[in-house]
Amino acid sequence: MHTSTTFLAFVHLASLTAAFPSYMRRQTNNSPICPNLPTLGDNSTANNTRHADSRPEEFRIMSEEMFPFIPPGPNDLRSPCPAVNTLANHGMLPRDGRNVDLNLFTNASWLGFNMGYDTMALIALPGMRSSTTGNCNPPTVHLSDLKQRVPKLVEHEASLSRRDAFFGGAIGTLDQEQWSRTLARWEGHDIITLDVAAKELKARFDWSRENNANFTADEEEFSRLPSLLQYGLLITTFGNMETGDGNKTLIKYFIENERMPWSLGWQPTQELYFPNNQLVAGNISAIWDSLVEAEETC
Ligand SMILES: *[C@@H]1O[C@H](CO)[C@@H](O)[C@H](O)[C@H]1NC(C)=O
Ligand SMILES: *[C@@H]1O[C@H](CO)[C@@H](O)[C@H](O)[C@H]1NC(C)=O
Ligand SMILES: *[C@@H]1O[C@H](CO)[C@@H](O)[C@H](O)[C@H]1NC(C)=O
Ligand SMILES: *[C@@H]1O[C@H](CO)[C@@H](O)[C@H](O)[C@H]1NC(C)=O
Ligand SMILES: *[C@@H]1O[C@H](CO)[C@@H](O)[C@H](O)[C@H]1NC(C)=O
Ligand SMILES: *[C@@H]1O[C@H](CO)[C@@H](O)[C@H](O)[C@H]1NC(C)=O
């Protein structure tokens, strides 16, 4: 069973990344520090061995007692990504947010979210190219490095909960105004289905196209893959791994607190290893395209 699902996931990953040339174009060796960083699809340095059925007994039920939530202090560095920040807020990544290597990312995202290497790598590998740590052996990154916008690697416009860089202010922190627009588009839906996700994404991109003079075709093309993956992650992690039906209560708690919703009864899934969120992201993408098409024919 593992063989076929892993194969399916790999095929899907290959087609998903091939469908997003603008994102992949950034996968060049442009790190000023480490000349030989691995690229997507190169798993020579990867620790691909961790999956749900190898989760040690002591991590089957996760809790605040094991990994207490402590908000970041003034000297702790954080990223634009709520998932990465949450891992650091619980000490699964270093709480100071400094010098995180691929093994730490792999272990923490698997431990916290049951995320496989392939999925984590879609963000962490490009992210490594923004490193300012000066450390190459192994390569590391400070979480705040992931805010880099030039050259463009992972940080993007049209986020669910962050304001576009075009409008200035702090990059990559929860923006109440933007988050309110997302919540308004989710109004009436306790479950974020693929349809709800696709409609919201389309509206979000339409909004940036109308209001953000820097939301060029290139920026839009680049932002698409990370935006889709984030939706895929959110609704599978906090919902149903098969259907992608995300639980809004859990998602809202997670985004607003950057804290694991363990107190609401949530636990990382134990059943699935393969990066199902990529399949879900692909499906949201297809619905989004059909919405745009329907609009164009009206
Ligand atoms: C990843 O590593 C496995 C062996 O560990 C190998 O069979 C597979 O082909 C590798 N995949 C890629 C994309 O390099
Ligand atoms: C992968 O993780 C195992 C522990 O789970 C460790 O022993 C091994 O050294 C790691 N491999 C690499 C390539 O980092
Ligand atoms: C993963 O993280 C847990 C919790 O911090 C730690 O106990 C474990 O040793 C780590 N495993 C690896 C292979 O790094
Ligand atoms: C808008 O885009 C221009 C050209 O790429 C860039 O120089 C400028 O910094 C951007 N402005 C903001 C606020 O992002
Ligand atoms: C997602 O798409 C795949 C094929 O691309 C399909 O097999 C699967 O049923 C779809 N899942 C959902 C929830 O639509
Ligand atoms: C979402 O999760 C919360 C907390 O576990 C639960 O109380 C609620 O019933 C769930 N909502 C739906 C619509 O299933």
Description of the structure:
It is a single chain. The chain folds into two domains: 76-155, no CATH class; 157-163 and 173-298, Chloroperoxidase (Orthogonal Bundle). Helix content is 46%, strand content 3%. It has ten helices and four strands, in the order αααβααβαβααβαα. The protein has helices at 2-18, 21-25, 82-89, 102-113, 117-128, 176-186, 194-211, 217-237, 248-257, 276-297; strands spanning 100-101, 140-141, 191-192, 246-247. α1 (2-18) crosses α10, α4 (102-113) runs antiparallel to α5 (117-128) and α8 (217-237) crosses α10. The longest helix has 22 residues, at 276-297. It is globular and about 55 Å long. Mean pLDDT is 86; it is low at 1-11.
**Rounded to an integer, what's the Rg over CA atoms?**
18 Å
Major sheet description: 2 strands, antiparallel
Which segments are poorly predicted (pLDDT under 50) over 5 or more consecutive residues?
A: 1-11
Oligomer: single chain
The CATH homologous superfamily of the largest domain corresponds to Chloroperoxidase-like
- Architecture per CATH nomenclature, i.e. the level-2 architecture of the largest domain: Orthogonal Bundle
- Residues in helix, %: 40-55%
Tally of discrete structural domains: 2
Shape: globular
Helix-strand topology string: HHHEHHEHEHHEHH
* Ligands bound, unique: 2-acetamido-2-deoxy-beta-D-glucopyranose
- Sequence of strands across the biggest β-sheet: 1-2
Number of strands: 4
In what range is the share of β-strand residues? under 5%
* Protein structure class: mainly alpha
In CATH's first tier, which class of the largest domain applies? Mainly Alpha
Q: Return the CATH topology of the largest domain.
A: Chloroperoxidase
> What would the average pLDDT be, to the nearest integer?
86
N→C terminal distance: 44 Å
